[in-house]
Input
Amino acid sequence: MTRHCHNCGWEWTYRTPPGRSDTCPQCHAELRVCLNCVRYDPRAAYQCNEPKAEPVYDKDRANFCEWFEFARRVYQPKAGRDRAAEARDAFKKLFD
Output
């Protein structure tokens, strides 16, 4: 179980939680986002288990939520197409 970027899986190894302007050094995704929070639940109202939290509509954008706590979990890559990887593979095939 690790704290990691919701987008690429890069592991957050610092002792303090990320600040609002911190981004992943690997993919540049913002880190203090709902998708990285322990209270994020896609089945809950507004996808948040904290009833006192104000609704946040962009779950992958940095916000000022005072209830943010970086989740510890096993990284699971996103399902579906990885368009960036497909583009790299096409580029390699073209020039190899």
In short: Residues 1-96 form one domain.
